Automatic annotation (TrEMBL), chain A:
Domain Rab-GAP TBC: 250-472
SMART domains linked to this entry: TBC
Pfam families, sorted: RabGAP-TBC
Any coiled-coil regions, as ranges: none
Gene3D superfamilies associated with the record: Ypt/Rab-GAP domain of gyp1p, domain 3 (1.10.472.80)
Protein name: Rab-GAP TBC domain-containing protein
From TrEMBL, chain B:
Xref: Pfam families: TTL
Subcellular location per the Swiss-Prot or TrEMBL entry: Cytoplasm, Cytoskeleton, Cilium basal body
Keywords assigned by UniProt, alphabetized: ATP-binding, Cell projection, Cilium, Cytoplasm, Cytoskeleton, Ligase, Microtubule, Nucleotide-binding
Gene Ontology terms describing biological process: microtubule cytoskeleton organization
Catalysed conversion reaction: (L-glutamyl)(n)-gamma-L-glutamyl-L-glutamyl-[protein] + L-glutamate + ATP = (L-glutamyl)(n+1)-gamma-L-glutamyl-L-glutamyl-[protein] + ADP + phosphate + H(+)
Organism expressing this protein natively: Patella caerulea (Rayed Mediterranean limpet)
Lineage per the UniProt record: Eukaryota, Metazoa, Spiralia, Lophotrochozoa, Mollusca
An annotated Gene Ontology molecular function: ATP binding
Entry superkingdom: Eukaryota
Family: Belongs to the tubulin polyglutamylase family.
Cellular component terms per the entry's GO annotation: ciliary basal body; microtubule
Gene3D superfamilies for this protein: ATP-grasp fold, B domain
Name of the protein: Polyglutamylase complex subunit TTLL1
The UniProt record lists the keyword Glycoprotein: no
Length: 524, 404
């Protein structure tokens, strides 16, 4: 039946169809359709229309639409005949750089292992397992000693790698390379300010935004109430594209949790609960060195943060199972240039059979990784939902923030976008900073890499991530970074050293995201 | 001190004349005691009411609130409505409390009705969590039972009296830890009642996970949220000090439980603050020279009901973290702005209706004068949309709307 619908086989549509066929949804739809067909009062001639009607009735239509929308959002149209390696990244030197970076991380991890005499992975004894499971909800209290563990890398290390990327084949007329003053040296195509304005149109200054315009004033209360009513209708409709459109103007605090679930396509059913329990039991059985890294990271970042220290225990309950989750690995293999590290089971080095991915999720955390999860704790109380939302967010967006690729949403492009925008629109500022030996990207990079989590106030981070999900794009991060520099321009023009500039931009907690973005995008 | 200097004020010695006196509680007693014969003149402000202990001592506060409720009941006011169990529907904001040794027998009766409950003993005259302990067996109170049985009438001194309240063993837990709320309320006058709630209150978290287990009753790190106690725990973190802003609390509750629930909770907190002040407004002498900034301690249970634990007259103004210091600096600054409109000389006779700009981070909680004026001229004020006017009207509307 479905084949009839897609008669004019557009390459892309065929692809979508093939992907659909592998999903559980397809089996579910087929089953429902077959049940319907087997009813005695069914006429063959009405096949198509009645099935469509029936789907509509049961709400399957919506789920199908959501699934297709999600697929399209995530996967850029890829040519089905291109070999896997080329798919990874069209530009080879970027790909090579990513591989060598990964090798470096793995080496550092291995050396930490030998230094501390701790294995990469180890099975826990029965007694340890029991203790651990009792402590599951209170892991923050008694952890092992981490003083010797260091984070594998921090944003500034990654920045060094990023800026050293250089296309050896490219030489421009100008000796400085095409990027006049900045430190990114790769010619990537980015959007201009005008294109960004069009893309982020719904945030324009003449439109009221949730999260900014719903203060306690009589007229604005009306706006606020209206948004809530509209938002509840959107949630009731269960359609993801609708939720995205709605959230482009922000979501009110009480609806945010549900809207994000809808946009990310998350619905927790029993299978999901079981899967989480399986991951949890994996954590209990085996201890990974990665666990210690995660502990250390949480202790260094979230536990010291005014806004998130309360949620410390939830972070462990999310991050530890996350690193055992092979779904993440699969996603990485398909969609990212990363080649997850591999390791060998002890004693069997070099034998293909015994090669495993380490860690099972393919993600080695860096300093600040825990902050990807922290803002979510304001939205979800139960660890399971928290886990799935975080995993989805990571697989759709955050993985691009610490992998080298020419992906237009990757950290390279975002940095490039930031520098170009800043140079074009705040040339004076950029030049002044460069002349006092302060490259703006050096300060802004950590904001971009952590999606501003931990730098802005908690409610502002949520407002910002609203827009990331709604517009399906991380570019808003660069726009915000530029806006912050513009905002603090007068003070920045007076600085004479790098540390003074850092000082001016050290505390962002009083900033409000929306007015800044609107000023920057729509008021020039 | 920085606040005062920033305004160009001059510090004076104890003997000299002063315009503004931020005193501690002992000096207040001296100034207002009958023997000293000291009279405050019209341009002098002082930061405590003379008999503030009616609100700030645990036993007097409970006494006053109980009396207030009884009075309302006698008047037949709908606020004093009771449910089937005899508990007040709208005014049930303090946990059941008895005074010891005077109410010992009443307490024993109550305890015998529900023998498995936990109660918390607090000495009346102390602060900062000193001397507090939990009891769940009558034997732990032997000391007072002996005293209660003697027939000699010796009025207990402040040092010996205790209050015993029903312990809230189902506090709302966030991240598995117990916390309480510290809110600052500024009162510039009791008759008519004018009070202001500070928007930037904070939550104090315990460093240890909450455990209602009987064996843990002695572990003060689990049960008491006072910073002075938690500071001594091993997990105390001095960067954030276990303090969370009220805005984060609100963000969390709205995000995870919905707006109506969060709004209802904060409305109830405002409600209980206003009524606690009304309860003592009759007995606190309304000296024109006085204003006071109280620290309200509130605990929220897991049904999201707020309970008033106590009111502090000298809330700690020392800072434990850097954001704490900023907040307390702003607090004092805003207090001064409201009490003495900036740019003017202090004059106790002014009308005490601060302009909106001077409110800073305070919200008008209840202004009796404005509320009464509003009832007369309600329509005009709400049409004009004056912020002070509408807020005052809204608050009085809230109180009047529950009047059936």
């Amino acid at each position: 039946m479905n084949d009839d619908c897609f008669m004019y086989g557009n390459d892309h549509q065929v692809q979508v169809l093939q992907a659909m066929k592998t999903m559980e949804l397809y089996a579910d739809l087929m089953e429902t359709a077959q049940k319907e067909v087997n009813k005695s009062n069914f006429k063959l001639t009405d096949l198509q229309t009645s099935i469509e009607l029936m789907f509509n009735d049961k709400g399957r239509n919506g789920t199908l639409k959501n699934a297709i929308y999600k697929y399209i959002c995530i996967h850029a149209a890829k040519h089905s005949e291109v070999p896997i390696d080329h798919l990874k990244d069209p530009i080879s030197y970027v790909f090579k750089a990513q591989q060598s970076w990964e090798k470096k991380i793995m080496k550092s991890l291995n050396s930490m292992c030998t230094e501390l005499n701790v294995p990469l992975a180890r099975q826990r004894t029965e007694k340890e397992q029991k203790e651990f499971s009792q402590m599951w909800t209170a892991l923050g209290a008694d952890g092992p000693d981490f003083s010797q563990i260091r984070p594998v890398y921090a944003p500034k290390d990654f920045l060094e790698v990023v800026t050293s990327l250089n296309n050896v084949n490219y030489r421009s007329a100008n000796n400085n390379g095409f990027n006049l003053w900045g430190i990114i040296q790769i010619p990537l195509k980015n959007r201009t300010m005008d294109e960004l304005r069009i893309q982020f149109n719904e945030m324009s200054i003449n439109q009221w935004q949730s999260g900014m315009d719903d203060e306690q004033d009589i007229f604005q209360e009306i706006f606020h109430d209206d948004r809530i009513k509209l938002g509840q209708k959107v949630i009731a409709s269960k359609l993801a594209p609708l939720a995205c459109e709605f959230t482009k103007k922000g979501s009110s605090i009480s609806l945010r949790g549900d809207l994000w679930c809808q946009m990310l396509g998350i619905k927790i059913d029993d299978v999901d609960v079981l899967y989480y329990e399986k991951l949890k039991s994996n954590v209990l059985q085996h201890e990974l060195l990665i666990d210690n890294l995660l502990y250390k990271d949480v202790k260094l970042t979230a536990t010291n943060d005014d806004h998130y220290f309360v949620f410390e225990d939830f972070l462990y309950q999310v991050l530890l199972p996350f690193s055992r989750d092979t779904v993440v690995l699969r996603n990485l293999l398909e969609n990212s240039t990363a080649t997850p590290a591999r390791s060998f089971i002890r004693g069997k080095v070099g034998m293909e059979h015994f090669e495993v991915y380490y860690p099972p999720s393919g993600v080695i955390p860096f300093h600040g990784f825990a902050m990807y999860v922290s803002p979510l704790c304001y939205l979800y109380k139960e660890p399971i939902k928290l886990y799935y939302v975080f995993r989805e967010l990571y697989m759709c967006y955050f993985f691009r923030l610490h992998v080298l690729s020419t992906d237009p949403q990757g950290i390279l492009s975002l940095s490039q976008l930031f520098e170009t925008l800043l140079q074009t629109h705040e040339a004076e500022l950029f030049y002044h900073l460069k002349s006092v030996n302060c490259q703006p990207l050096k300060i802004a990079f950590k904001w971009l890499m952590r999606a501003f989590s931990g730098f802005l106030a908690s409610d502002q981070v949520l407002i910002l991530w609203d827009r990331i999900l709604a517009f399906n794009s991380l570019e808003i991060l660069s726009v915000l970074a530029v806006a912050i520099f513009t905002f603090r321009k007068t003070n920045l023009m007076k600085v004479q050293t790098y540390s003074a500039a850092e000082g001016v931009l050290a505390d962002l907690t009083t900033l409000q995201v929306l007015p800044l973005i609107q000023l920057s995008l729509f008021c020039k | 001190m920085n606040n005062f200097e920033a305004r160009g004020w001059i510090q004076v010695n104890p003997e000299d004349d002063f315009n503004f006196y931020w005193a501690n509680v002992q000096n207040i007693r001296n100034i207002f005691s009958i023997e000293s014969g000291y009279r405050l003149s019209d341009d002098q402000f002082i930061n405590h009411f003379p008999n503030h202990m009616e609100l700030t001592r645990k036993d007097l506060m409970v006494k006053n609130i109980k009396r207030y409720r009884k009075d309302l009941e006698k008047e037949g006011s709908p606020l004093a409505e009771k449910d089937e169990n005899g508990r007040f529907v709208h005014l049930d904001f303090i946990p059941q409390t008895f005074m010891l040794p005077s109410d010992y027998n009443l307490f024993v009766e109550e305890f015998r009705k529900n023998p498995n409950t936990t109660w918390i003993m607090k000495p009346c005259g102390k602060a900062r969590g000193i001397g507090i302990f939990l009891v769940n067996k009558l034997s732990q109170l032997k000391k007072w039972s002996r005293d209660g049985k003697t027939n000699v009438f010796t009025p207990p001194t402040a040092k010996e009296t205790y209050v015993i309240s029903k312990y809230i063993d189902n506090p709302l837990l966030i991240g598995g830890k117990k916390f309480d709320l510290r809110l600052y309320v500024l009162v510039t006058s009791f008759k008519p009642l004018k009070c202001y709630m500070y928007k930037l209150g904070f939550c104090r978290f315990c460093t240890v996970k909450y455990n209602a287990n009987v064996n843990e009753l002695d572990n003060m790190f689990v049960h008491l949220t006072n910073v002075s106690i938690q500071k001594q725990g091993e997990d105390y973190n001095s960067i954030h000090g276990g303090k969370w802003t009220v805005q984060n609390l609100r963000l969390f509750l709205e995000g995870t439980r919905g707006k109506e629930i969060a709004d209802k909770l904060f409305d109830e907190i405002n409600w209980l603050t206003v009524h606690s002040l009304k309860a003592v407004s009759g007995c606190i002498s309304n000296d024109r020279h006085c204003f006071e900034c109280y620290g309200y301690d509130i605990i929220i249970d897991d049904n999201l009901k707020p309970w008033l634990i106590e009111v502090n007259a000298s809330p700690s103004l020392t800072a434990t973290t850097s954001s704490d210091r900023i907040m307390k600096y702003k607090l004092i600054s805003d207090v001064i702005n409201i009490v003495i409109p900036p740019g003017e000389l202090p004059d106790v006779r002014w009308s005490r209706i601060p302009a909106k700009e001077n409110l800073g981070s305070f919200d008008i909680l209840y202004d009796e004068e404005l509320a009464q004026a509003d009832i007369l001229t309600q329509e005009i004020k709400s049409r004009v949309g004056q912020a002070t006017g509408t807020r005052g009207a809204r608050d009085s509307k809230r109180t009047t709307s529950t009047w059936k």
